[in-house]
Design a protein that fits this description.
globular; single chain; binds adenosine monophosphate; five-stranded parallel β-sheet; 8 helices
Length: 195
């Protein structure tokens, strides 16, 4: 199964993507994690990305597209995966589309986790304290949310037109949302109520 998880920062898509990967044997591919690791190690990619990340801005499309192309073209490339935090712009979605077409790895579904801005702001205040992420300050969170609302509609529309988009509420406890996701994907685990 090959999936994309879309949703605002703090929507829980990372948590849900990881949980589904653990339980369904899929590989988790998160550009945010790859970029944070590059920053931590001080690699050329990290040095290029850091300034954008600290300000809550997107890293340029070319850089993230190259990260994904490299990850999916490596000899040990995953064939079943969940992408989390990518694509975030129409240009990224188009680049991924071409790449997956070339590699003959079609997507099964694109899941959109819906969470209100007020809920996001209160969750990220909590995450800043817990995880000490330098890009979770009030100012950068607001910048990231603004950017999300500016760029995501085109991405959502792109996948809606392909008939791949599935939407669900990201509000509720982790296990309930996980069950709703399994249900949407036809992976079993109980009735589809509330999905
Ligand atoms: P995330 O952990 O997905 O919230 O990503 C953290 C930060 O990494 C974002 O605020 C961006 O600065 C950068 N980033 C991650 N994924 C992307 C992407 N697909 N396009 C551009 N920037 C990204």
């Amino acid at each position: 199964m090959r999936l994309i998880f879309l949703g605002p920062p703090g929507s829980g898509k990372g948590t849900q993507a990881k949980l589904l990967c653990q339980r369904a044997g899929l590989t988790h591919i998160a550009t945010g994690d790859i970029l944070r690791e590059a920053v931590r190690q001080g690699t050329p990619l990290g040095l290029q990305a850091r300034g954008y990340m600290d300000q809550g801005q997107y890293v340029p499309d070319d850089l993230v597209n190259a990260i994904i192309a490299e990850r999916l073209s490596a000899p040990d490339r995953p064939e079943k995966f969940v992408m989390d935090g990518y694509p975030r712009t129409l240009a990224q979605a188009q680049s991924l589309d071409e790449l997956l077409h070339r590699l003959d790895l079609p997507l099964d579904a694109v899941l959109l986790l819906q969470v209100s801005d007020d809920e996001i702001l209160s969750r990220l205040r909590g995450r800043r304290v817990q995880e000490q992420r330098s890009d979770d300050t009030e100012e950068t969170v607001r910048a990231r949310l603004k950017l999300y609302h500016e760029t995501l509609p085109e991405v959502i529309e792109f996948y809606r037109r392909k008939g791949l988009l599935r939407e669900l509420s990201g509000q509720g406890d982790v296990e309930t949302i996980h069950r709703a996701i399994r249900c949407i994907l036809g992976l079993g685990g109980g009735p589809c109520s509330g999905a």
